[in-house]
Each structure stands twice: as C-alpha cells, then as structure tokens.
Specification:
Family: Belongs to the LysR transcriptional regulatory family.
Number of helices: 9
GO molecular function, one term: DNA-binding transcription factor activity
CATH topology of the largest domain: D-Maltodextrin-Binding Protein, domain 2
Oligomer: single chain
Distance between the termini: 51 Å
Strand content: 15-25%
CATH superfamily of the largest domain: Periplasmic binding protein-like II
GO cellular component, one term: protein-DNA complex
Pfam families: HTH_1, LysR_substrate
Keywords: DNA-binding, Transcription, Transcription regulation
Shape: globular
Radius of gyration: 24 Å
Length: about 300
C-alpha cells in the first residue's frame, strides 16, 4: 500500500466523483480509476459503488475512510517534522485548547515560552475537550488544555491548572442583568443556551441541572451552540441565559452581563493533558513551563 493510494481514496470519497477527484489531484481520470481498482484489489474489497452518474462509498469504504484520514495526517506531521529538523529547528508541538482558554493571559504564556524555546514550533488549534482526548489517544495531538472526563483514558496524564465556579451569562437588557446574584428558583421558565452534547464533556452540566431540580425547577433548553463564543453570542442576541465557568479574561462581551449563582454552584476544572508514552523533550519542557505559569496565577 502506498500513501498516494490513500490520497486517491480520500479524494474520491470526499468528491464522490472520479472526475472531480482527478481534477483536484491534477491527474487524468483513467489512471486514477486504475489506481483505485489496484488499491481495492490489495485490500480485498470494493471501496466504491460505481454507477453511471454516481459514486458511493461501500460499507468497507465508510469504515476505512476515518483511518485513511488519520494515516495521512500522521504522514503529513512526519514530513513537516523532518523538514523542520532539516532547517535546524528542534521540535514540533501540536497543542489543542478549548475556546474558553483562548485568553490574553494564555497568549502571554505562549509568547513567553516561544521566547524561551525559539526552536520549538507550536501548532495551535481550538477543539472541544472530547476531540482533544481522542486525538491524544490517537497520537495526533501532543498536549491539550481541556475539561477532564470523570474517567480519563489510562494512557493520558493530566494536571489541574484552573478551578472555575459557574456563573450566569444573561442578555444586558434582561431583568437579571441589574442583579448581583440569583437563586436557583429564579431560573424557572428561563430558556437556557448550552454547548451542544458531544462538544462538552457528558457530565458538564450535570451539577447545574441537579441544583435546578433540587429547587423544583425543570431545565428548559432553547438553543445549543457549537462552542463558548457562539453560546455567548446567542445570549447577546436574546435567545436565553447560559451557565458557564467564571473566566474573568472572557467576561467582556457587548450585550451580555455576568451574574453570580448561589454559593453551591457547581465548579468545573481545566487541566493540561498529554500522553504517558512517547513524550518528546519539547513536550516535557512545555508542560513544565505551563504548570509553573499557571501556578503563578
């Protein structure tokens, strides 16, 4: 099996057209079709159902596509790492973080690390905690800033870096906006804006819901958002109110006020996480630097 066969397979799978895939790959269609058939013969099964005007993935094709993406991603990282080594750079660090951690304070920490370790190239991306944990297990992410699960993967190490009690984001024209705090019973019939399931950890809102129900209030979810930034925007647009961790760096949004919940409000934690095995010197230096920086605050 060759990497080009994986690229050809992914291109056809994404385009669902040999013509468009050949154009995307800058090759002629007949050789592309020939190479795909050769790849299918090596695998021992068809990847595509071919019809006169349509191309569809077979069951085998659907099952192999995610793995093909992962293999190509790893190959890309290998090539980029080799190129940087050839240029004299020391290492590459693939870093993920949740959107609520994209703060000026964290940016200052990254600048300080880059100044101290200029030979380490950081590839930074914003992803939900669940995605980061899966990427850590696959080995496509080196280190993540994320919300931990109740049960973390056995091959992932994590270190606590921040504790955040929940507060309430409300539209600036909402009656709550003039108050410093609310009681749980005050939230009856208030529409909620939450981060959609699968993005936040499964138990992320569990404590908040428990306290509402203990007060005789049944949660009423009106809107789901894909991330924290979108959730705050929905609040500013008047779609509802939103429970969210108290993060001072991010509590400055036009059209939104932040108020306190009762003293028994749930608390969420943020951790820095990395794999036990295969930790590079650059990764260990970053983890040490980050832990010291977070401890200082």
């Amino acid at each position: 099996m060759e990497l080009r066969h994986l690229r050809y397979f992914v291109a056809v799978a994404e385009e669902l057209s040999f013509t468009r895939a050949a154009k995307r790959l800058h090759i002629a269609q007949p050789p592309l079709s020939q190479q795909i058939r050769k790849f299918e013969a090596e695998l021992g099964g068809a990847l595509f159902e071919r019809e006169a005007r349509a191309v569809r993935l077979t069951k085998l094709g659907r099952e192999l596509l995610p793995e093909a993406h992962q293999l190509l991603e790893r190959a890309k990282r290998f090539q980029e790492h080799a190129a940087r080594q050839a240029r004299g750079e020391q290492d590459v660090l693939v870093l993920g973080l949740i959107s609520s951690f994209a703060t000026p304070r964290f940016a200052a920490m990254l600048r300080a690390f880059q100044k101290k370790m200029p030979g380490v190239h950081i590839e930074l991306s914003n992803h939900p905690s669940a995605w980061q944990l899966e990427a850590l297990e696959r080995g496509t992410l080196d280190v993540g800033i994320l919300r931990p699960r109740e049960r973390m993967p056995p091959d992932v190490v994590s270190h606590f870096i921040r504790r955040e009690p929940f507060r309430l984001a409300v539209p600036s024209r909402h009656p709550f906006a003039k108050r410093k705090a609310v009681a749980w019973k005050d939230l009856r019939d208030e529409p909620l804006v939450l981060v959609e399931p699968g993005v936040a950890p499964p138990d992320y809102y569990a404590g908040f819901f428990d306290r509402l129900r203990d007060a005789g209030v049944e949660p009423a979810v009106r809107q789901y958002a894909q991330n924290v930034a979108t959730k705050i925007w929905f609040v500013s647009a008047g779609f509802g109110i939103a429970p969210m961790p108290h993060t001072p760096d991010t509590e400055h949004h036009s059209g939104v006020a932040f108020i306190d919940l009762p003293e028994d409000a749930p608390v969420t934690n943020t951790v820095i996480a990395w794999r036990k095995a295969g930790s590079s010197p650059a990764l260990l230096r970053f983890v040490e630097f980050a832990r010291e920086s977070f401890a200082a605050h």
